[in-house]
């Protein structure tokens, strides 16, 4: 909700229709990278136990990047569940804004 009331330059997210578990998002390609001046569309799907589990975030815009597969899935630690026996870094203090900013940063710094 903070992202809608206090926008962050270069990122945007809003619910996709009546289903509040699915959000459309956009991120601007970071300056000084091959993605500069490009805008990428993503879809965020929130599980029923959010914020205790991470959202699933997929690129809708095709992108060539070592941390994004052909289906748009993103390899980023904060998008993986954390806990005993798990390697993820998701935390309930993270929100949509921090996730999108991390993805935007990942575009400029692959394999982070």
UniProtKB/TrEMBL annotation:
SUPFAM superfamilies: UBC-like
GO MF terms held by the record: ATP binding; transferase activity
Cleavable signal peptide: none
InterPro entries for this protein: Ub_conjugating_enzyme, UBC, UBQ-conjugating_AS, UBQ-conjugating_enzyme/RWD
Active site: 75 (glycyl thioester intermediate)
Assigned keywords, A-Z: ATP-binding, Nucleotide-binding, Transferase, Ubl conjugation pathway
Organism superkingdom: Eukaryota
Positions of the UBC core domain: 1-112
Family: Belongs to the ubiquitin-conjugating enzyme family.
PANTHER family attached to this UniProt entry: UBIQUITIN-CONJUGATING ENZYME E2
Protein name according to UniProt: Ubiquitin-conjugating enzyme E2 2
Species this protein is from: Dissoconium aciculare CBS 342.82
Organism phylogeny: Eukaryota, Fungi, Dikarya, Ascomycota, Pezizomycotina
